[in-house]
Specification:
Distance between the termini: 37 Å
Radius of gyration: 30 Å
Number of strands: 2
Order of helices and strands: HEEHHHHHHHHHHHHH
Subcellular location: Membrane
Number of helices: 14
Number of domains: 2
GO molecular function: L-amino acid transmembrane transporter activity
Shape: globular
Oligomer: single chain
Strand content: under 5%
Membrane topology: Multi-pass membrane protein
Main location: membrane
Structural class: mainly alpha
Pfam family, one: Aa_trans
Helix content: over 70%
Length: 380
């Protein structure tokens, strides 16, 4: 869980640094906002800008001990995301009416095996987008009326889904086959409409601020989970200033180093989606369910599986071996009809054994002695 949060925080750092200082893709440099405004300076490098952003923006926001303190910045971040979508959609619609948008390629271009496997690189991005539900419990704990949580979750998911769909649709419609991994990097060139430069700056700056305001909310859950892992029996971290400060500084240091040394946001997203989000979304929930299953059920499954293997699977294997050995030893002496008859007999015996296995699985659990109490508990 902590690994997932840290990678997600690094992703925000990546996008922020790309917008401010620029990025490289396929040997082409896409300038950032600071470089366009002030030219190349010593302080517009990624590491320097991230350090300034951490000290001036992130540090004050992550110092709050209650998630409720971030409600205004969170609302502002949602508004800035809507601004990004509205401007992108407006530019795409204007260019579509002018006929200056090329028809994008709707299907992937498969030229070799490598291009086929590249299709699966989209899965980590999709998984990452729909796994960010880590703030549900902290928000619910701070609500005066917990019954509001259902409506809050529905509204949040609907809003996020709308923003995701609109961003992907209009972004790809606007830039087509030239869409970069970080679509914000596409807004460094002339869009072909009036006030193009102003719109580019508004889009990039607004979304950059949006990410800056989202980061403290993700960091809140990261700090809370890590503290619970390291200090499970200590008092809540909000009541221990020394522990609060130590955990916060350590986490920010790891995130800052990761954002500076990982080469691109695409690499970060692949690790986030392929490792962390798969664990959080699929493996961990299943593991929790298995852990909390009734111990008697686990005992029953263990005994039943052993009996199944001993009573049914082993005879099937022995039957197959007993028929194959003479066939292989005397294959040259057997004619075609004998081989066919042996194969038919083998198939019938194997099918009979398989039917016994299916019948065993269909029988009620009371067939195995020592587990009759399971039915009584189920009836209760």
């Amino acid at each position: 869980m902590e690994y997932y949060f840290e990678l997600l925080s690094d992703d925000i750092f990546f996008v922020t640094s790309d917008v401010l200082s620029g990025t490289w893709s396929d040997g082409i440099h896409y300038s950032g906002v600071m470089e366009e405004w002030f030219g190349q300076q010593w302080w517009d490098k990624r590491s320097v800008l991230l350090l300034l952003t951490t000290i001036l923006v992130f540090a004050p926001l992550i110092s709050f001990k209650r998630l409720d303190s971030l409600r205004y910045t969170s609302a502002l971040s949602v508004g800035l995301a809507v601004v990004f979508v509205v401007i992108t959609a407006g530019v795409a619609i204007v260019k579509l009416r002018n006929g200056s948008i090329e028809m994008p390629r709707l299907l992937p271009e498969l030229v070799d095996q490598a291009s086929f496997w590249k299709l699966f690189t989209t899965v980590p991005i999709l998984v990452t987008a729909y796994i960010c539900h880590h703030n549900i419990h902290p928000i619910e704990n701070e609500l005066q009326d917990p019954s509001q949580m259902k409506s809050i979750v529905r509204t949040s998911i609907t809003l996020c889904l709308s923003v995701y769909l609109a961003t992907s649709f209009f972004g790809f419609l606007l830039f087509g086959n030239h869409t970069l991994d970080d679509v914000l990097a596409n807004f460094d060139a002339d869009l072909g409409i009036p006030y193009s430069s102003l719109l580019n700056d508004v889009v990039r700056v607004s979304y950059c601020i949006h990410l800056m305001l989202v980061f403290p909310i993700i960091f809140f859950s990261l700090r809370l989970n890590l503290d619970g892992l390291l200090f499970p029996y200590a008092i809540p971290i909000a009541f221990d200033n020394r522990r609060f400060f130590s955990v916060t500084v350590a986490l920010m240091g790891f995130i800052f180093l990761g954002a500076n040394f990982v080469p691109s946001i695409w690499d970060a997203f692949q690790f986030t989606g392929a490792i962390a989000t798969v664990s959080v979304g699929f493996i961990f929930p299943a593991a929790v369910c298995l852990i909390h299953l009734h111990s008697r059920l686990s005992e029953f499954l263990d005994v039943a599986s052993k009996q199944l293997v001993r009573q049914e699977i082993s005879p099937i294997v022995m039957t197959v071996i007993s028929f194959l050995i003479p066939i292989l030893q005397h294959a040259e002496e057997l004619n075609k009809s004998l081989i066919e008859n042996s194969a038919t007999t083998l198939g019938r015996v194997a099918w009979r054994r398989f039917s016994n296995v299916v019948e065993l699985l269909r029988r009620p659990y009371q067939r195995h002695s020592g587990f009759d109490h399971l039915k009584g508990e189920k009836d209760k």
